[in-house]
Write a structure and sequence with these properties.
Blueprint lengths: L7 H9 L4 H8 L3 H9 L6 H14 L5 H8 L4 E6 L5 H16 L3 E6 L10 H7 L4 E5 L6 H8 L4 E4 L9 E6 L1 H14 L4 E5 L6 H17 L2 E4 L7 H10 L8 E4 L2 H13 L9 E3 L16 E3 L2 H13 L9 E2 L2 E3 L8
Parallel strand pairs: 1-2, 1-3, 3-4, 4-5, 5-11, 6-7, 6-8, 8-9
Antiparallel strand pairs: 10-12
Helix pairs in contact: 2-3, 2-4, 6-13, 9-10, 11-12
Length: about 350
């Protein structure tokens, strides 16, 4: 009769079984509790014993069963992240920064992207919590995310990554100071003799765009120079290109401050096609410091946002047990390049 305990089928099943903490304990010759201490509080275990357990873990290929652990501790190590799925540089880079920061802090992330128009009593927050999310970060760069943000905040406290703070119970906001970034642009231009500046405005449904307009208008008043804000436009390069082709070349301003680098890119193309020299005839400034902006023609003066720090700040705030921790307002930094000249 075939030895059933040593049959090929049994050996295959045994080989496929995930190693457990009991297996590790048996291999290391220690108790189950000792293995648990090595995994959760290794500093209290003698170095020699810890080395035996770590060697057994490596030999067996043991990994923690986080789902089982969460049933015992009510902690899952999972953060929920809600976005609108925007491919634009700011929101996409912010989302990536949150994921990196969460991983470095020992968390994994569950991401959900709301469909256009989805909001109100959105199921996004409930689904994330049901899947084990301990807390939720919402990347809310525009008005379209507000309804979903407030809906999720009814279920659990959230951190919003947004240029404007949201006045709603259960919501704390992490921001980059968009207005200060715009003020830095105006000050930089004014110090170099520019006396008339046009701000090529982004879409007003976006909080970043509003913050940049507010900073621009305040700085223009403080500097006592001429300023103009255009009608709202899309974030794409085509909006800057169209604006550049519609410009009256007989009455160019000293500088044009585009609300983001993509708009500035389209503007540079249009001006070049029309024989306008940048920066000799007009200076151009962008915002965001996207990858490649240093290689525009000419290299673009712009404002850099600290997206990595933004991700860290959001993760720290949402995972902190201290609800009195202040929500930070992070600085934006001017990056001078050769698209601006001294006048």
């Amino acid at each position: 009769m075939m030895d059933l305990m040593n049959s090929p089928r049994d050996r295959t099943a045994t080989a496929a079984r995930r190693p457990s903490m009991t297996d590790v304990a048996a291999r290391a010759g220690v108790s189950y509790q000792t293995v648990s201490r090595v995994l959760n509080d290794p500093g209290i275990v003698k170095a020699e014993t810890r080395a035996k357990v770590e060697a057994a873990i490596a030999e067996l290929g043991f990994t923690r069963n986080l789902a089982a652990r969460s049933l015992k501790t009510t902690r899952t190590g999972i953060l929920g992240v809600v976005t609108d799925g925007s491919p634009l540089f700011g929101p996409a880079t912010t989302t990536a920064a949150i994921e990196w920061a969460a991983r470095d802090a020992g968390y994994s992330t569950l991401l959900t992207a709301l469909r256009p128009g989805e909001g109100g009593e959105s199921t996004a927050g409930r689904e994330l919590l049901e899947r084990g999310a301990e807390a939720i970060v919402v990347v809310a760069p525009h008005e379209g995310m507000l309804e979903a943000l407030v809906s999720i905040a009814r279920i659990t406290p959230v951190v919003s990554v947004s240029a404007l703070p949201q006045e709603a119970p259960g919501i704390r906001c992490v921001s980059v100071d968009q207005a200060a970034g715009a003020r830095a642009v105006v000050q930089h231009l004014a110090e170099r003799g520019h006396r008339s500046i046009v701000h090529l405005q982004g879409p007003t449904t976006w909080f970043d765009a509003r913050g940049r307009v507010a900073g621009f208008e305040a700085a223009i008043t403080d500097a006592g120079i001429d300023g103009e804000v255009t009608t709202p436009r899309s974030w794409g390069a085509e909006s800057g290109y169209e604006y550049g082709h519609a410009l009256d070349l007989s009455a160019l301003p000293d500088a044009i401050f585009a609300a983001n680098d993509q708009m500035a890119l389209g503007l540079l193309r249009a001006l070049r096609e029309r024989g306008v020299s940048v920066p000799d005839d007009v200076s151009v400034v962008g915002f965001d410091d996207i990858e490649g902006s240093a290689y525009f023609t000419p290299p673009l003066t712009t404002v850099r946002q600290p997206f990595a720090d933004l991700g860290w700040a959001a993760v720290h705030l949402v995972t902190s047990d201290d609800t009195t921790v202040a929500a930070p307002l992070l600085p934006a930094t001017l990056v001078p390049r050769s698209s601006v000249r001294d006048r």
